Amino acid sequence: MPNRATAAIKENERYIDYCFYLGRKLVVVLGNFDVVKEALSNNKIMDRPKNPPNDLLPNSTSLSVSNGLIWKEQRHFSVQALREHGMAKSKMEDIIQIQLNMLMEEIDSKKGNPMNLDQLLLPTVSNVILTMLIGKPLDFKDKDRVFLNKMLQTMVVFFRPTRFHAYFPSLRYWMASLKIWGYDKAEYYMNKFEKFIVAQIEHHKKTFDNQNVQNYIDSYLLTLKTKIEKVSSFSEKMLKGNFQSFFSAGSTPSRATLEWCFMSMLRYPDVQKAIHEELDTVLGRDRRPTWDDHLDLPYTMSVIYEVMRQNTIVPISMLRCTSSRTKIAGYDIPEGTIVMTNIWGVHHDPKDWDDPFSFKPERFLMDGKAVKPQAFIPFSYGKRNCPGEDMAIIMVFLFLTTLMQRYSITLPDTDFDIKQVVGVAKLVILDNVCLKIRC
Fold first, then answer.
1. Which of 90, 175, 219, 353 has its CA 20 to 30 A from that of 204?
2. How many CA atoms lie within 13 A of 251 on its CB side?
3. How confident is the model over 321-330, as pLDDT tens digits?
4. What are the two backbone dihedrals, phi and then psi, of residue 6, each rounded to the nearest 5 degrees?
5. CA 270 to CA 278: how far, in whole Å?
6. How far from the centroid of its chain's Cα atoms is residue 362's Cα?
7. Which 8-state DSSP code applies to residue 317?
8. Is the pLDDT higher at 55 or at 258?
9. DSSP letter string over 245-296?
10. What DSSP string runs through 195-259?
11. How far apart are CA 186 and CA 158, in angstroms?
12. How, if at all, do strands 338-341 and 25-30 pair?
């Protein structure tokens, strides 16, 4: 059925990329910064669709799939609780340093020989957010840690916004029963993940001490015990879903960014050399980097930003949905329209980026400082952007600087045929690289 939104797209490609129907759902795709900023600042485009692609955990809901007052209440509580338990604070740096020590022990044991760096980064990075959620990391060989690794590796492709079940939810279980497109594996891992989360909640119930609240689950249980309002969005179903959302979002994108950073070191040896020189000048070889050092390491920060821009780790941000008829770029958009933000398109728009397909860290440098232009939106934009943005940047900075201070990264040969996985995040699989202690 023709509509004004379709006409707008045909007449004004510079504003709205295109639209299409999936089933009966109209999907509008936005791919330049000005229109993304306008749309994602619009209170009528704050909602999630009824069946977002990350809503796969059974018997749960979450702040990332909720709307209205429920989303606002859960987001406010969760950000505050995670900050109390270290997110973007010095306590988080302590957690990261513990994981870095474990990681470097494993790397040193390889003695510069080829290794699967992906298998080491996955548990190390996700242990940081896991510590905030349950109060402790898991050993690399722990059976739960091994399961979580497999779950994260499998589920990354099912959370992406373009996945089939986001538009045809009624077919999801049918596809699982017939083992189509791996949906049976998705159901298996989500069912098992739910059991893991329930076990964690039950354990924290038994050990709960309202005078000694140590992690996100404890904070949530305390709120469940003390909340007196008759109408509240707090429930164990919400706790389970929030756990899944924060664990997934706090693990995969940060790990993916790190992997692309190391991939850039391999692709651009001069960039790796420049980072080594900056680290040596500012820190030397002995003092560990801290987040406070980021202002004195502008080139390294600019490399991180350029990696995030050029590769756009999350190419399509979480879907939005119009709660009522509204306008985008001056054109009517019907109620219930799915709004898809093409972050990759924003990050490669020649209007905002000179020579956008080239790797140029210096584009983020100004007067000796690393700066972020408005059109740099790797964590989306507006009130529903990623709440873990600060945590992710700090984690990537500390992992990258600590490892680059100690090691140089190379390939065992000149073969650059490195595997990629595109899901909710775009990953590069570094399963055959060499990290050698610098001379």
1. 90
2. 29
3. 999 999 998 8
4. -60, -45
5. 12
6. 25
7. P
8. 258
9. HHHHHHHHHHHHHHHHHHHHHHH-HHHHHHHHHHHHHHTTTTSPP-GGGGGG
10. HHHHHHHHHHHHT--TT---SHHHHHHHHHHH---SS----HHHHHHHHHHHHHHHHHHHHHHHH
11. 7
12. parallel
Taking the model in full, what pTM does it have? Answer: 0.91
Cα-Cα-Cα-Cα torsion 277, 283, 288, 291, nearest 10 degrees, comes to -90
DSSP string over 405-426 = HHEEEE-SSS----EEEESSSE
Is 261 annotated in a binding site? The answer is no
d(CA 385, CA 377) in angstroms, rounded, equals: 9
User: Tokens for 106?
Assistant: 């494993």
How do 18-22 and 434-437 pair as beta strands?
unpaired
CA angle 178, 182, 187 (to 5 degrees): 80
Determine how many CB atoms are found less than 10 A away from the CB of residue 209: 9
pLDDT (tens digit per residue) in 65-112: 999 999 999 999 999 999 999 887 888 999 999 999 999 999 999 999
Half-sphere exposure of 339 (CA within 13 A, CB side): 31
Which residues 6+ apart lie within 8 Å of 160 measured at CB?
Answer: 53, 316, 422, 423, 424
Residues comprising the chain, all counted? 439
Q: What is the mean pLDDT of residues 205-209?
A: 95
C-alpha distance from residue 38 to each of 30, 87, 322, 326, 370 (Å): 10, 29, 13, 12, 26
CB contact at 8 A, 28 and 321: no
The Cα 339–Cα 29 span in angstroms is: 6
* DSSP code at position 316: B
What does DSSP assign to residue 123? H
Residues 132-170: tens digit of each pLDDT: 999 999 999 999 999 999 999 888 877 666 666 667 777
Those residues whose C-beta lies under 8 Å from the C-beta of residue 375, and which sit 6 or more positions away, are 33, 346, 347, 349, 352, 353
For the chain, what percent of residues have pLDDT higher than 90? 72
CA–CA dist 307, 33 (Å, integer) = 19
Q: What's the chain's average pLDDT?
A: 89
Residue closest to 75 by CA, chosen among 33, 55, 46, 50: 46
Per-residue confidence (pLDDT) for residue 228, from 0 to 100: 63
